[in-house]
Structure formats: structure tokens, C-alpha cells
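Methods — Computational structure assignment.
A single polypeptide chain was analysed. Its primary sequence is given first, followed by the predicted tertiary structure written as C-alpha cells.
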Amino acid sequence: GHSSATVRDRLYQIIRQHELDPNLVKPYAADFCGVETLREATRDQIEGFVQHLADWAEKDRNALLCQLNSYMPAKNGAA
């Protein structure tokens, strides 16, 4: 049977495989799904994000990393 754990497992699998920062993937995922926090996202939304993330990581990991880095909290008041 399908449980929501499978989708999250897949997400973490991608994060590990491509050495992404889960702390940046989460806010990006929430943004992608149009929700405040990832917990509010529906299973379908998360599945769509996982597919998007996997595709992008395969095709152009550097561009994905740039996107993820934009979710880094600003340090020392630097823009």
C-alpha cells in the first residue's frame, strides 16, 4: 500500500543522492507547493515536487543548487 512515508522517503533519497541541503529543500518545497510549511502540503503536491526535484537534479544540479541557495537565511545582514 502507499503511505505518505513513501513520498518523503523518496524525497530524502533524492536529497542524499544529490547531496542537497534538506534545510534548503524544505522551504523550496513549501514554496513550490504554495504552502507556508511543507507539513501543510498535500501528498499530491509533495509527489509533484519530488518529481520536479529529481528531474532538475538529474538535468542541471548546479542550477538547482543556485535555486536552493536563495533560501539560505541571510547572515551578517548581507543581502
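Note: The two ends are 46 Å apart (CA to CA).
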